[in-house]
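Hey,
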Amino acid sequence: MRLSFLGAAGNVTGSRFLLETGSKKILVDCGLHQERDLLDRDWLPFPVPPARIDAVVLTHAHLDHCGYLPRLVREGFKGKIFCTEPTEEIARVVLMDSARIQEEDVAFKQRRHEREGKTAPHPYEPLYTTEDAEAVSPLFSPSVYGLDVDVLEGVVCRFHDAGHILGAAVVELRIREEGDEKTVVFSGDIGRFGKVLLRDPTLIPRADAVVVESTYGDRNHETPNDAVDKFVEIVVSTRAKGGNIVIPSFAIERAQEILYAMDVLLGNDRIPHLITFLDSPMAIKVTEIYDRYPHYLNPAALRRAPGALFDFPLLTLTRTAAESKAINHIKGSAIIIAGSGMCTGGRIKHHLQHNISRAESTILFVGYQAVGTLGRYILGRPESVRIFGASHPVQARIEQISGFSAHAGRDDLLRWMDGFGNTPRRVFVVHGERESSQAFASALRERMKAEVAAPEYGETFEF
């Protein structure tokens, strides 16, 4: 059995893990890179001809786990894509949104270069088109948690609740060769224990090998109460100055988590009743998907707000570009939640353009910002930042709250790994910046008898 790490090794995004057994090739996750200095990897020929890959198994529908699928299909992949039911629905939305943004960004860049008299070093083309994204849909083969699914002859998959986003799964692959069965578990992204919207991550009692994420493998988050208190302070103080609270937010889970928290805070009069814009067509669509899968959510959340988890007075859903542009003409304070979460594209860049030089406004990050992304750069509080080809002085207040994160912190990751006891012989630590992965690998070596490695990009292991 061979396992190759074709992404999310030594970095956070671009999750792609190729498992080879006998003549079978299974790709677990098929994501895009989002770190600016790693984007070129997505344009390279795939290390294995896509036509030779027999199946894809998705842990969840975040772009860095599913966003390369249209390119894979365009280059020849024809197998099935196995995932949970919500993951299929959300992935369709994510892929179409990604394709549309890429097409729009290419067109915008071409127009800007023409105005500036510049010539691009390569043709103006997106990584894939909306037609490529549409071609992925017929290949989905959705399932539910806890059910055995025959992926290929001798390969059985079972999805377990990862507690990360709606439908996110820990993937358990049981592989039988020559009368011998081995179990390989892929964590995908593990959520936090005790979350409001989702159930706790499922503990799995045994595995021969485990591939585990380490996004926050070297640190823990704020407590939920600390996160809420900080959110309240930011909203109250920014409103007092007459500024906007601009929240770059991932459309999946983070946006819904923020809306739910705001509903609770408004109900208790802890924050002022400001007009709040959910300025993300994708987040709006995903919120509608959440409403269709209540049985995947935490029953406690449903009991608190039956049928109205993500709605409150003054919440405005902006679906069109014209509605989005109109936000910047509003006088007084508003809360603006827009994608993308790492500021790599989408409507958030327009709101940053209008607010980052306003001392009265606050840019509030509520999710992980990968190295090389615009969001990570702004978090460093530079003197100026380049947005849409123009330089803007950074005068807004820049803040980050980690307590809303959908990722497990170090202690939650260790708690999840403890579920295996000492059954794994091999553990591979991935999906983290190098320092985080190495720190978490060291913690596991002290805790388990397994052989623990933090693979590099392109590295292959036989076991």
